[in-house]
Amino acid sequence: MLRFILIRVAEGAATLLVSSLLIFGALFLAPGDPIAILIGNRTVSPETVEALREQYHLDDPFLLRWFAWLGDVVTGDLGQSITYRDDVWNLLEPRLGTTALLLAMSLVVIIVVGVGLGVVSALGGRRLGDVLLGATSVGVAVPSFVAALVLISLFAVGLGWFPTFGSGGDELGDRIYHLILPVIALTIASGSYVVRVTRAALREEAQRDHVQTAIGRGLPRGRTIAQHVVRNALTPIATVVGVTLTSLVVGSIVIEKAFALDGIGLLLTDAVLRKDFAVVQAITLLLITIVVVVALLIDILQVAVDPRVRARVVRR
After folding, report:
1. Which terminal residue of the chain, N or C, has fewer Cβ atoms less than 10 Å from its own Cβ?
2. Is the separation of the CB atoms in 214 and 148 below 8 Å?
């Protein structure tokens, strides 16, 4: 088990290293000059331009810039924003709370509502299952930005039940209230997908011979479902919830832009438009790190809850 975790950690570290090179290379090759965007329509001397390029090491060789940036990141220095003239961490810190709360609320909805409706759809009546299956077929086809526009038009502008934009004040209750519509928009497609996968996994496990034999012999249905159906279906359910979380991380960028939330997603979109390399690199690497950590936790959870996976790991 320990060997398995160490291998996964090493693979995750290698993924982050390669990702950092790809991120840095993509920005290095992207058209446009950040200094030109920073200067705008103002007239500055060539000496000033040269000083700015030297300050931000824009004329250094690619590999030298990458190694220098990677070394700074390892020590906790994310660089300085060209646009805001401030440390990148100072820009990220006040915005991380909004993004973290948005993702946490979305994950709770996915687990409670998505998995819950999946269980009801699989183990409840056929008519209810068909209704939920039809509703989720529509839900998985709705992009998050479309859902955001519809929710804003209907519940914010039309009915006035929720605010149209912003993350709210400092109080937790107010922030949760402002994030209700963004969470719904973010989780409609992902939650529908979780419902369908949960339903399929539970129905597959319920049709296995040992489950049908246990029910046929008169063993309590609830106990049989809990011990043999739900437990064996936890692996695909945990996997799809983890994959969904990674999609939520990416989707939050669009949602934060649509609802004007002061999170790192909105900061990322603005930094891309302004060619603010240090900000884009830091946020992108942070998002990839979250994905790698989630993937590692999913692997460990699968080994912990599924004896079949654990047996394969031990044999290796």
Report:
1. C
2. no
| Distance from C-alpha of 125 to C-alpha of 69, rounded to nearest angstrom | 58
The predicted-structure confidence for 182-214, as pLDDT tens digits, reads as follows 999 888 888 888 888 888 887 777 777 666 666
pLDDT, tens digit (0-9, with 9 covering 90-100), for 32-90: 666 666 666 666 667 776 776 776 666 677 777 788 778 878 888 787 787 777 888 88
Q: 253-269 as b/e, with b when 16 or more CB fall inside 10 Å?
A: bbbbbbbebbbbbbbbb
3-state secondary structure of 87: strand
* End-to-end Cα, the chain, rounded Å: 10
10 Å Cβ neighbour count for 120?
Answer: 16
**pLDDT score recorded for residue 145:** 83
3-state secondary structure (DSSP) of residue 262: coil
Cross-strand partners of 54: none
Phi, psi of 87 (to 5 degrees): -65, 140
pLDDT tens by residue, 131-160? 888 888 888 888 888 888 888 888 888 888
Name the one residue in this structure whose structure tokens are 């529509």. Answer: 138
Three-state DSSP at 56 gives coil
Query: Residue 105: which residues within 8 A CB-CB, separation 6 or more?
Result: 176, 179, 183
What pTM value is reported for the model?
A: 0.78
State the Cα–Cα distance between residues 161 and 51, nearest whole angstrom.
52
Domains and CATH numbers, the chain: 97-274 (1.10.3720.10)
| Residue pLDDT, tens place only, 97-114 | 888 888 889 888 888 888
Residue that has been written with the tokens 């086809």 in this structure: 141
DSSP for 105-151, written as a single string: HHHHHIIIIIIHHHHHHHHS-HHHHHHHHHHHHHHTTS-HHHHHHHH
Angle at 291 between CA 285 and CA 297, to 5 degrees: 135
User: What is the number of other CB atoms lying within 10 angstroms of the CB of residue 273?
Assistant: 11
